Amino acid sequence: MKVLHSVHPQDFKTYQTGLIRERFLIDKQVQPNQVNCTYTHYDRMIVGFANPVDTELELPNYPNLRAGYFLERREIGIINVAGDGVVIADGQSFEVKKLDCLYLGKGIKSVKFASKNADAPAVFYMLSSPAHAPKPTTLLTHADAVKVTLGSASTANHRTINKYIHLEGIQSCQLVMGLTILHDGSIWNTMPSHVHDRRMEAYFYFDVPQGQKIFHYMGEGNETRHITMDNYDAVVSPPWSIHSGSGTASYSFIWGMAGENLDYTDMDPIAITDLR
Ligand SMILES: O=C(O)C(=O)C[C@H](O)C(=O)CO
Ligand SMILES: [Zn+2]
């Protein structure tokens, strides 16, 4: 499993594009009939992908975990971003359609992934953080996720936030997870931007139209940098970093966090006029 180590904000100021990409970008991980995971040292969050096309896949037990099985001391949130899929947790099958979320808690020994149709396979995006206690297995459909609409067309940031795993939603130990859909013609996410020193965050961009790109902004508010990202790329955001993006077209992304609390609204905003 690939490992990403933590970066100090003072060091980040000297980074150029190549090093920023090496330290934070998680790309080319959605591969047919593969499960691919990256271990980050940001709150020990694991960022994973499963793309079962014509075969069932199993979540492996990586040696990095020194565990009997992947979820022995972890929890996981799984969101499907493509064709209809199935997740089998300790023998129990869950239909996970596009934009549905399945939460599996500490103690689930076996997790398998399958697609309903090999011509339109599922793509499962996963975030897993350490967990101290078992929480109930929960499937939440996109329709039932709590929705908050923010921004406006005139500032090109009209978007709907869908909250799945959070204080008032699916219960977890420390995982918070959901997704944001940009309305047609809007291209800015998380603007005005913010940081939250209490937890890291990971973004996974999807439904980025062919031939388009995301410009993802990072760094302290007074010292920002960007990398460009493609469909199905993920990026980790240290607790000191903003995490905002602008696309050359509308798109969607999954956000997820782990750290001190489960309160989605725990953010320290940065005024647009203060960004450098
Ligand atoms: O569009 C947004 O704004 C977001 O989706 C913000 C993220 O959810 C976030 O950064 C939560 O801390
Ligand atoms: Zn955030």
UniProtKB/TrEMBL annotation:
Binding site for Zn(2+): 194, 196, 201, 243
Keyword Isomerase tagged: yes
EC numbers: 5.3.1.17
Coiled-coil ranges per UniProt: none
InterPro entries: KduI (IPR007045), KduI/IolB_isomerase (IPR021120), KduI_N (IPR027449), RmlC-like_jellyroll (IPR014710), RmlC_Cupin_sf (IPR011051)
Cofactor: how bound: Binds 1 zinc ion per subunit.
Pathway listed: Glycan metabolism; pectin degradation; 2-dehydro-3-deoxy-D-gluconate from pectin: step 4/5
Catalytic class of the enzyme: isomerase
Keywords attached to this entry: Isomerase, Metal-binding, Zinc
UniProt KW Nucleotide-binding keyword: no
Reaction catalysis annotation: 5-dehydro-4-deoxy-D-glucuronate = 3-deoxy-D-glycero-2,5-hexodiulosonate
Record-linked SUPFAM superfamilies: RmlC-like cupins
Cofactor: Zn(2+)
GO molecular function, one term: isomerase activity
Database matches in CDD domains: cupin_KduI_C (cd20491), cupin_KduI_N (cd20294)
Signal peptide extent: none
NCBIfam families: PRK00924.1
Similarity-based family: Belongs to the KduI family.
Function of the molecule: Catalyzes the isomerization of 5-dehydro-4-deoxy-D-glucuronate to 3-deoxy-D-glycero-2,5-hexodiulosonate.
Protein's recorded name: 4-deoxy-L-threo-5-hexosulose-uronate ketol-isomerase
